Amino acid sequence: MEGGDHLAHERKKAQFDVEAMKIVWAGSRHAFEVSDRISKLVASDPAFRKDNRPMLSRKELFKNTLRKAAYAWKRIIELRLSEEEASKLRFYVDEPAFTDLHWGMFLPAIKGQGTEEQQQKWLPLAYKMQIIGCYAQTELGHGSNSSKWWPGGLGKISTHAVVYARLITDGQDHGVHGFIVQLRSLDDHSPLPGITVGDIGMKFGNGAYNTMDNGVLRFDHVRIPRDQMLMKVSQVSREGKYSQSNVPRQLVYGTMVFVRQTIVADASCALSRAVCIATRYSAVRRQFGSQNGGPETQVIDYKTQQSRLFPLLASAYAFRFVGEWLKWLYTDVTQRLQANDFSTLPEAHACTAGLKSLTTAATADGIEECRKLCGGHGYLCSSGLPELFAVYVPACTYEGDNTVLLLQVARFLVKTLSQLGSGKQPVGTTAYMGQVEHLMQCHCNVQKAEDWLKPAVILEAFEARSARMSVACAKNLSKFTNPEEGFAELSGDLVEAAIAHCQLIIVSKFIEKLQQDIPGKGVKQQLGVLCNIYALFLLHKHQGDFLSTGCITPKQAYLANEQLRALYSQARPNAIALVDAFNYTDHYLGSILGCYDGNVYPKLYEAAWKDPLNDSVVPDGYREYIWPMLKQQLRTARL
Ligand SMILES: CCCCCCC/C=C/C(=O)SCCNC(=O)CCNC(=O)[C@H](O)C(C)(C)COP(=O)(O)OP(=O)(O)OC[C@H]1O[C@@H](n2cnc3c(N)ncnc32)[C@H](O)[C@@H]1OP(=O)(O)O
Ligand SMILES: Cc1cc2nc3c(=O)[nH]c(=O)nc-3n(C[C@H](O)[C@H](O)[C@H](O)COP(=O)(O)OP(=O)(O)OC[C@H]3O[C@@H](n4cnc5c(N)ncnc54)[C@H](O)[C@@H]3O)c2cc1C
Asked: Domain 115-231: what homologous superfamily?
């Protein structure tokens, strides 16, 4: 069958209002309308074609990215797009570029750490793209004294950078501070005197993140004007005197809190994209199981396929909602900081660090699982999955290696527990620690599988597991005379406690979402199914934690798994509609396997013939290498 909607029969099975779910996924009707309009604008413009990326050499690829970035900027100006629309346009262009760092880190760093005066000077230039900036923190070696290495946009394009370096005045080291540094001439783009700058070389995967010019930077006697030190947190006077505002020093790292929050939102996008591809293809693909000459089984009907795919579908929704909440938390902490209330900064840091770590790790693994769920075809570039994985996987490393970030969360948890003794009541995401005595001895009240559908039961099990793991770490730490030595020795356990805490946050935010008014026929019910799948899948996967801490019994673990299987059956008829609700265009998905109409095989066949290798019947190199070999064999055979 050619043409038509090959997934129409699947779409008819949906038990909820897909259009209403699209609004829930987007966050609001307004967000949906902007996203829908801009994604279609990008998809319909041939200038934003991206299917040829894996075939291009690095230089062609990079030049193509510059062309797209300049064209995108031209369209933003011509169409007078708002900041929100412009950012959506860059998102749907779907190509890592220097602009990500300019808008995503350079500007936020100046906004967050610059004084009013500095903001007035630099922000208008940056907003109009009269200067292009990057964010230069990481070094080749360690310390803040070798070469900057990795900053995106630095290698070939940025004219300026926010550079993090040690501030030394009168021989005294005041630690790491941010400085705005001009790197290249605004006339001919050549590096300014004393500056060595270039690209650090090819990265993982063809195409993929190689559209980005991650760079190296060295300074040799470069003078940075005093007023280019970002001075909101601390200042140096004309006389060289160092002083600090009445704000915590940690604000120097504020840009990371902001960016980690956006990375969590991005995780739901990347995972939902992979899940959309794998779900649609799983409904199209048939293998074995034919009875009486009937059609073979759709692979999505295999229970093993469901138990691998549906937790990822549920995770995509879970990450969406926790990302929404994290955005709220960030806005809240920003408003408090403006009012000189710094009390929630440690929690915002722990939440952004921990959730960044958890969601990026699950998304990177999830994309690879989706590739495997698509069998052999998943390995083709035209499935969209290899490139998505290669682009996505560094998210586990950038903005803080995931393990290092979990250790930051663990420190926060241990500190929270240690403050309980002095009567300080934990709030926000650690409020449950206030009931630590109850959580240490409570018994899970599940007697039959359906009991696992009660939100209070799920929450208590996750809270008890998290509290018990943190308390066990704190008890073990107290046995060490040197706390840092103890922290290093127990770091493996501490990371696991941090994971348990972050999983609790995601589960509890999903449950909170369900307590809101959610319009649309059957929408809330479907989200309830996904929420339960997410929680019970985690419980099943980490049942070792739940059992060893005595939070649940082996029988209750068994019942959780029984309930999980029932939930998969409930999700099955809605699977295609649940991925349709992401509202992704075929352009954004960039996948033959995931195309909306499910017409996979003719498209795969057609795409194969477009490969440059098929330009000629006899390949280049045949005459040179293969023909002589064949001739040689012929001669040997005759002998
Ligand atoms: C839209 C954009 C697209 C994205 C594209 C990707 C671009 C990628 C960009 C990058 O990768 S930029 C480089 C990012 N680098 C990192 O994330 C490094 C990870 N390391 C850290 O975060 C470290 O914490 C640090 C910031 C380097 C500091 O290390 P140090 O050893 O000096 O101090 P710590 O002991 O870790 O912390 C001291 C104190 O400060 C608190 N804290 C740490 N970070 C933050 C923060 N971001 N916000 C608030 N508070 C923070 C920490 O909890 C400690 O508190 P106390 O225990 O003393 O109370
Ligand atoms: C694609 C990409 C883009 C990037 N963009 C930028 C950018 O724009 N600007 C910028 O400044 N940087 C950028 N970075 C750099 C990035 O922020 C760092 O790579 C990241 O913070 C990790 O630091 P590292 O590379 O030094 O790893 P390391 O810290 O050397 O980590 C190596 C290993 O050691 C472990 N480890 C390290 N410290 C500890 C510890 N204390 N305890 C236990 N284990 C530890 C880690 O878990 C990891 O397994 C980018 C990186 C990538 C890959």
From this structure: Butyryl-CoA Dehydrogenase, subunit A, domain 2 (2.40.110.10)
